[in-house]
Amino acid sequence: MNLLLRIIVTALLVLLISNFLPGVIVEGFATSLIVAIVLGLLNLFVKPVLVIFTLPVTILTLGLFLLVINAIIILICSELVSGFRVDNFWIALLFSVILSVLQSVFFGITNNKSAN
Asked: Are 15 and 26 in contact (CB under 8 A)?
């Protein structure tokens, strides 16, 4: 149930961000749901490989290179999902940062309420 809630919340956040961020296009809720699932799968399977291969750069930049990896994951998702388009790397970087912050805030609030 928790996984399903996370996917739905991520889909809603993707749809919300696409309405406010120029350069990100999502055709509808169904597309944002697919984007949320694909992002989850890419973060599960592809991101760890990228992190291992870029570990020296990540250490050298004190972890800031992870933002670049997140943007690359967004761009890969943009190529895989029709109906989801991100114009360029910088928009993908901004999109990934906004999505991460909003997810952290939302899941932080909901986890605190369920603990009480």
From this structure: yes
